[in-house]
Amino acid sequence: MNAAADPDTAPPTHPGPVGLMSGTAARRVMQSLMRTGQEARFIGGCVRDAFLGIQAADIDIATPLVPEEVTRRLRQDGIRVIPTGIEHGTVTALTEGSSFEITTLRRDVETDGRRAVVSFTDDWLEDASRRDFTFNAMSLTPEGELYDPFDGVRDLKGGRVRFIGQARERIAEDVLRILRFFRFHARFGQGRPDPDALAACATMAPLLPSLSGERVQQEVMRILAQDRMVEVWRLMIDCGVVAQTLPHATNVTRLAALDRLEWLVGEAHPMAHLAALLPSGLSAAADTAERMRLSNANRDYLLSLCAPPVDVHPDLTVTSRRHALQKLGPETYRDLLLLAAATRGTPAVELLEALAEAATWVVVPFPLKGRDLLEMGVPPGPEVGVMLASLEGWWAARDYRPTREDCLTELSRRMADRQRDQASPAKS
Fold this sequence. Notes:
Elements: H1 24-34, E1 41-43, H2 45-51, E2 59-63, H3 67-76, E3 80-85, E4 90-95, E5 98-104, E6 106-111, E7 116-120, H4 124-129, E8 139-140, E9 146-147, H5 152-158, H6 167-173, H7 177-188, H8 195-204, H9 213-223, H10 229-238, H11 241-245, H12 252-265, H13 270-277, H14 282-292, H15 296-306, H16 318-328, H17 330-344, H18 348-360, H19 370-375, H20 382-397, H21 404-423
Parallel strand pairs: 2-5
Antiparallel strand pairs: 1-2, 1-8, 3-4, 4-5, 6-7, 8-9
């Protein structure tokens, strides 16, 4: 009998609470929830990660107490409470600089593939049964008793990502679980993925367009941050997942080449992994950014990688390199170099040489502004922009070395020439 089915039995196979789970803040929250005999446990990802010796960033706690009672107890003990997901039974406790997400045990009343209507329960096994994967259903008491109703420990040790119950049923409850499956396989999987899970993901992939771009973005960027991203992205293409979410993102060969380079020279910006999968040009990048609902900053960065305003490759001349660094900034320049090298198959030695200057380059702002020209007598209007651009070109041609005083001197010289030309009698 498993531990969740029999509360008196719990296998001593877990190292117990670690990291934030064992700190004074967690003890304070747990004592508040359990002070009259009610049970509370750490649950989900923090338990899974602790078993693997990983410090979890988020600590989740489950309890049979309803949210109102959770809130009352915590506030009575001087712990700040935020109703972050009250309709789903979730509040966040803040104490000693740490946060804990506390959720009442739940059962699903209705699901539509994107969201669920829930009711509360006091049945730990019923709550565990509604979760996605076996290793995410584990829970842990403050004393270190592990409850593992679906053999999540065995799956973790074996590197297998396995849905709880029928994979298709779990996916029908929340279609995002398709992307979560591939993300967890990239992070924890070993060898081939669970065949039942893979088949279910392929069958249910046509439901993926119902997801919001923000939810897709979150999972995709996590997948593209994993060491096994190339292998897993190939699986996603084979299963039809990419076609249903990011149909332009199919250049796995370039992603694999970029991945190999990163092992030698260090990681690129996360958007570079996405850019590697896309064809060159604005169209596919803009469509992908829209599908993923990227922030303006990430959208602009992706576009700059897929359609750069200046050409960047390892064979640029010294002058061209410096112009590109100044215009793009060292981070964008570096990522474009890596993408170009991944496309061209540039030898690592040449790439390292090309990257060396970017590592120390500091963008130098042009010393003059439009107001400097106005103060020197340039009339307001288009002429200010034209002359400012011309001066900046003069400054760039001198390797960005002229100082503000040098630029003002050049401006004065040009203004004197302009006045002299205007004063000269018109030629007959």
